[in-house]
Design brief:
Layout lengths: L6 E3 L14 H24 L15 H12 L1 H12 L7 H11 L10 H6 L4 H8 L5 H4 L13 E6 L7 H10 L5 E6 L6 H4 L1 H13 L2
Parallel strand pairs: 1-2, 2-3
Helix pairs in contact: 1-8, 2-3, 3-4
Length: 215
């Protein structure tokens, strides 16, 4: 019999399920589906269904809170860049704005400075980035995997940084809550940003090894 391989996400995203109460497995699925529906409703209420241009409702996963986190960690200049990106989606991000984001805002993603050689080794395609981020109707503002999380059938480890300005920890908790309860393991990391492995490598790698080896 084929086993579903475990998956890992640090920040990923409901589909209706046909549920019957005829077996313990299906009863567990029913509980997971109900739990998932509640989580989705709560997440959508907070986020306006996740697009970056969603309505500002004052929660920790709204564009306004993202701006506040970027300004908190990066100062007024980074806050201004975040304000343009998240609160003015009708203003396209041109190459100049993307360059400023990369130089000033990207370092705020993590609590430990990134290795500058990483960017130098990367193959950068500006035209692809502009297509993804640079239009008000671009895919970066419209793609949404959250509705399909309840369909996941393999053990899933969610690693969340509590200082992540791109995906505030409440957003990551929504992701974990939407996954089937018997398959998900959610680990929060204090003093970590958008990438927990570079910010807390020893704990993150230990969790990854333990999660994989026990499957």
């Amino acid at each position: 019999m084929r086993r579903n391989k475990p998956s890992v996400t640090s920040a990923v995203l409901r589909a209706p399920m046909s549920i019957r109460q005829s077996s313990p497995i299906l009863r567990q699925q029913s509980m997971d589906a109900s739990r998932h529906e509640s989580a989705t409703a709560a997440a959508n209420q907070r986020t306006g269904a996740y697009p970056a241009s969603s309505a500002n409702d004052g929660s920790a996963n709204t564009p306004a809170e993202r701006v506040a986190l970027f300004e908190r960690f990066g100062g007024p200049e980074v806050g201004a860049l975040a304000r343009r990106r998240f609160l003015q989606p009708e203003v396209p991000l041109d190459q100049e704005a993307r360059d400023a984001w990369r130089q000033l805002a990207l370092p705020v993603y993590t609590r430990i400075p990134r290795d500058p050689e990483i960017a130098r080794r990367a193959i950068n395609r500006p035209e692809v980035a502009l297509h993804w981020f640079g239009r008000p109707d671009g895919e970066s503002d419209t793609f949404n995997m959250f509705p399909d999380l309840g369909r996941i059938q393999c053990p899933t480890l969610v690693l969340g940084g509590e200082d992540d300005p791109m995906h505030p920890i409440e957003s990551q908790a929504d992701i974990a809550e939407a996954l089937p309860a018997h398959l998900v393991q959610f680990e929060r990391f204090a003093n970590c940003g958008h990438a927990v492995v570079p910010d807390a490598p020893e704990r993150a790698m230990a969790l990854l090894r333990e999660f994989i080896l026990r499957r």
